[in-house]
Amino acid sequence: MMNRHSMRRTAAAVVLAGGIAAGTLAGAMGASATTSADYGYGQSVEGRVVSPQPLNVRYGPGTGHWITGTVNNGMHVWITCKTEGTNVGGNDRWYQLADDQGWVSAYYVNNYDYVPWCNS
């Protein structure tokens, strides 16, 4: 059971990652499935964070870029594209979060569909 402090941090992570808490709650309650287009993100792909600790969101695709925030384990994120960056756990793919909110290592995100390559 989550305490009030944990719930606030979780809600903040949803906002940071571009998710919408109401949409996640509606989906969990059996409402019709939501897509990234429902939230105005165009062709974004939904993913879920699978990190034992809060996942760092970075300014660029690699561990050498500064941390701009974090996303907690289990949170849903919207991904716009992937590119190569710093190797993390044998995976050099990095996902750009929707709405230019930063980059996360693909090693810690299970994507629900194909993520296209970023246009360089």
From TrEMBL:
Residues 1-26 form the signal peptide. Residues 55-109 form the SH3b domain. The keyword Cell division does not apply. Keywords: Signal. It holds the Pfam family SH3_3. The keyword Signal applies. This is SH3 domain-containing protein.
